[in-house]
Amino acid sequence: MQSFEQSMLTLITDTSTQLSPDVREAIDKANAKEDSGTRAALALSRITENIQMAEQKVSPICQDTGMPTFILHVPVGANQLEMEKAIKNAIATATKQGKLRSNSVDSLTGANTGDNLGPGTPVIHFHQWEKDYIDVRLILKGGGCENKNIQYSLPTELEGLGRAGRDLDGIRKCILHSIYQAQGQGCSAGFIGVGIGGDRTTGYELAKQQLFRHVDDVNPIEDLAKLEDYILEKGNTLGIGTMGFGGNTTLLGCKIGVMNRLPASFFVSVAYNCWAFRRQGVTIDPDTGAIQNWLYKEERPKVEKTAKSQEEAKSSNRQVVLTTPITEEQIRDLKVGDVVVINGLMHTGRDALHKYLMDNDSPVDLEGSVIYHCGPVMLKDDEGKWHVKAAGPTTSIREEPYQSDIIKKFGMKVVIGKGGMGAKTLKGLEEHGAVYLNAIGGAAQYYAECIKEVEGVDFLNFGVPEAMWHLKVENFAAIVTMDSHGNSLHADVDKSSLEKLAQYKETVFK
């Protein structure tokens, strides 16, 4: 099984560092139709740049490499126990090499295993079939988009859309609502897989299976084919846009599957996936364990306008350069829409750190500082020096219970993350003279390039993603989406997209 293990390591590395051609084509099409000079155009330009950097450096596209989920179809008689062992060895090796972030955490203690192995991780599903080769598919679905999965039980009442019944039109409303509720927190523009029917468990599994379909395939069920086209068209009229900044593209793909259900239950399950849609597959020779074919690497036609030039994509909004420590006067001068470029020292902090700081002192002075919601991929060299391999933002809303209190307690002036935060944080920004910057979700290589040195680390016992890293940065750019004057782009986009959602309240599919 040594060759099989190497094949799995190759599959993991490729899935983490390269997007398949059908996904790239969907992103290029979105880039081509976005209005020049907008925040969405700037974000898509950075996304395109990040994709190229990840492939060239063979580094993770996004630092959150998610829950590795394998689906294998194997010939009768194949040794599944040995194959599972080989997959787990490959996962541990990929983690050690920095192709995966260590994401397996004990649910009771919070301890990180460090190698992505533990009860329930990775996820491996085996299915026997009568073919004479092994089919292996892998998806790396990050926690930010996983948190935007949603399941509906019909009939139900939906915000903006009213009653959704147990019929095709009720399903339509659920899917539209799932796009609205994701906003920019799942790193839109995104892809969705939908499972109709089943129970609560199999419905979600069916939804995730849809994400293994090619972006432009055609559903063999005519009604579902029509619904997929409808959702893709109407979802892009909601104006949520890339990163929730507003814009022309909110959805890049929609795939729907159906299975039978119990008479008492009618579930519509939606699996949301960010633009960093990392799924790949291979066929394996069962005798040698070697890769025979790649399943998502076919050549595709070039999109006429694959990317904006740097000058064309540049935001028309004001650009402000700040060097840490930052004063309240500098913060009060910022407004929603400004592009801020940070130089100096910033500190990472996620869930574990925020919880800790509520009741304890900080190991470093945070007055006038920048806190970055980020769980980076880090590697230590032979001399003991840490290097950043990937460092995009994590979803900020998880820190909503803590953020305002921590700003008040420690005097930090800038919070950087993705997807925005809520009313409590917005009030805290206004009261204490701070600002929230939205970085480009998933752009882990683009931001890693801005980090020039790791100056230190605290709380490694929390695990690498949750530790407090002290990073020296240059030209770290993000957009003001919540300012110190009570303005929030996220609240504005949520309100306007809800108004647009309401236009689809009337029955369409009978």
UniProtKB/TrEMBL annotation:
Top-level taxonomic group: Bacteria
| GO-annotated biological processes | generation of precursor metabolites and energy
Enzyme class, spelled out: lyase
Catalytic reaction(s) noted = (S)-malate = fumarate + H2O
| Cofactor(s) the protein requires to work | [4Fe-4S] cluster
Q: Which residues form the Fe-S hydro-lyase tartrate dehydratase alpha-type catalytic domain?
A: 7-282
The EC code for this enzyme is: 4.2.1.2
Fe-S hydro-lyase tartrate dehydratase beta-type catalytic domain: residues covered: 297-492
Q: Name one GO molecular function term.
A: 4 iron, 4 sulfur cluster binding
Keywords in alphabetical order: 4Fe-4S, Iron, Iron-sulfur, Lyase, Metal-binding
Tell me which SUPFAM superfamilies the record gives. Answer: FumA C-terminal domain-like
InterPro entries tied to this protein? Fe-S_hydro-lyase_TtdA-typ_cat (IPR004646), Fe-S_hydro-lyase_TtdB-typ_cat (IPR004647), Fe-S_hydroAse_TtdB_cat_sf (IPR036660), Fe_dep_fumarate_hydratase (IPR011167)
UniProt family annotation: Belongs to the class-I fumarase family.
Its job:
Catalyzes the reversible hydration of fumarate to (S)-malate.
Enumerate the PANTHER family for this protein. Answer: L(+)-TARTRATE DEHYDRATASE SUBUNIT BETA, L(+)-TARTRATE DEHYDRATASE SUBUNIT BETA-RELATED
- Subunit structure of this entry? Homodimer.
| Name under which the protein is recorded | Fumarate hydratase class I
Species for this entry: Shimazuella alba
Q: What is the lineage of its organism?
A: Bacteria, Bacillati, Bacillota, Bacilli, Bacillales
